[in-house]
Design goal:
- This protein has a 5-stranded mixed β-sheet with strand order 3-2-1-4-5, with helices on both faces. Strands 8-7-6-9-10 form a 5-stranded mixed β-sheet, sandwiched between helices.
- Helices cover 42% and strands 18% of the residues.
- It has 10 helices and 10 strands.
- The chain has 2 domains: 152 residues, Nucleotidyltransferase, domain 5 (2-Layer Sandwich), CATH 3.30.420.40; 170 residues, Nucleotidyltransferase, domain 5 (2-Layer Sandwich).
- Bound molecules: 5'-O-[(R)-(carboxyoxy)(hydroxy)phosphoryl]adenosine and zinc ion.
- 5'-O-[(R)-(carboxyoxy)(hydroxy)phosphoryl]adenosine (KG4) binds next to helix 5 and helix 6.
């Protein structure tokens, strides 16, 4: 079954073709970074309009790459939520209209399910069950994943998500949008031990996260450096490094405890912050020591993309799931999903 996947939940238009036999056939992405940069963050109305402009050329591009006509696809999957309502509506409207015109099934996919299942795009894919650390711009969560759609929440953020903390801290350090990757690049040059920042909830018995206090600690530190006239380039670099190191410590510690608590041996890391080099390195080290098998999506599939939506849609469409409702769900909890039986 060949499924066209459409992702338009935020500031990236992602399109891909996934074949249940042959894997990922083609994918294409347009990022709106340049469009939103001058505003310092995503402007929802501009995001929706840009998705409208990009979606048709991207679909044509993907079909061309795969050497297929649209008549040769067997179904369409789109991100139904969570995300920006107007942006989601572009993907939902396009996918539903295309499916109707082709007389093919269509399904709305949960964006976080896409992230969670994205390591299955790799050749060395994990098998169920596993523990998943989902670290995106809006979510920092640990899940116990038994099968497609069977997700038990083990831990959640009580305030800011890790990605959000990266973005806000980057702004404090004067870095341009999108802050997370820019802060990570800066941190590579710094010393993690010059400034000590808190590791919120690291010793708490539960698996919840909290990152807003860390952001405040950075603000206090920056202000102190400014007052003392020593907020120079080296200070920015070392603060970025101290911040990244604090977030990574918390994420690593909670993930390892999550795995140990469930008695499972597999850990999957997904979502934009999963692209972070230091996080990947530290998790690899811990996993090796503790005999945990660890799985990351390829870096390109950590951040938003159409491939994860095509994959998640394919896993549901092959089991007969359909959805012609053409509704979007800007707010939608992953634990509301119903499971499907799969062979993976
Ligand atoms: O999963 P994603 O692409 O979009 C959402 O669904 O939210 O995640 C975006 C988040 C942003 O907060 C971005 O700053 C963060 O992921 N991010 C990173 C890195 N690359 C993206 N954070 C830290 N280090 C990175 N290399
Ligand atoms: Zn995402």
């Amino acid at each position: 079954m060949r499924i066209l996947g459409i992702e338009t939940s935020c500031d990236e238009t992602g399109v891909a073709l996934y074949d249940t036999e042959g894997g990922l056939l083609a994918h294409a992405l347009h990022t709106q970074i340049a469009l939103h940069a001058e505003y310092g963050g995503v402007v929802p109305e501009l995001a929706s309009r840009d998705h409208v402009r990009r979606i048709v050329p991207l679909v044509e591009d993907v079909a061309r790459q795969a050497g297929l006509t649209l008549n040769e696809i067997d179904g369409v999957a789109y991100t139904q939520g969570p995300g920006l309502a107007g942006a989601l509506l572009v993907g939902a409207g396009f996918a539903s209209a295309l499916a109707m015109a082709l007389d093919k099934p269509v399904i709305g996919v949960h964006h976080l399910e896409g992230h969670l299942l994205s390591p299955l795009l790799s050749t060395a894919a994990p098998v169920f069950p596993f523990v998943a650390l989902l670290v995106s711009g809006g979510h920092t969560q640990l899940y116990l994943v038994r099968s497609v759609g069977d997700y038990e929440l083990l831990g959640d953020t009580l305030d800011d998500a890790a990605g959000e903390a990266f973005d806000k801290t980057a702004q404090l350090l004067g870095l341009p949008y999108p802050g997370g990757p820019a802060l990570a690049r800066l941190a590579q040059l710094g010393r993690p031990d010059r400034f000590h920042l808190p590791r919120p909830l690291i010793d708490a018995p539960h698996l919840d996260f909290s990152f807003s206090g860390l952001k405040t600690a950075v603000l206090t530190l920056v202000r102190r450096q400014e007052r003392n006239g020593v907020f120079d380039e080296q200070a920015r670099v070392d603060i970025a490094c101290a911040f990244e190191s604090a977030v990574v410590d918390v994420l690593v510690s909670k993930s390892v405890r999550g795995v140990e608590k469930t008695g499972y041996s597999r850990l999957v890391v997904a979502g934009g912050v999963g692209a972070n080099h230091t996080l990947r390195k530290r998790l690899h080290e811990e996993a090796t020591t503790r005999k945990i098998q660890i799985y990351f999506p390829e870096t390109a599939f950590c951040t938003d993309n159409g491939a994860m939506i095509a994959l998640a849609g394919a896993l549901r469409l092959t089991k007969g799931a359909r959805n012609y409702a053409f509704t979007v769900r800007p707010r939608w909890s992953l634990t509301e999903l119903r499971g499907v039986e799969t062979n993976i």
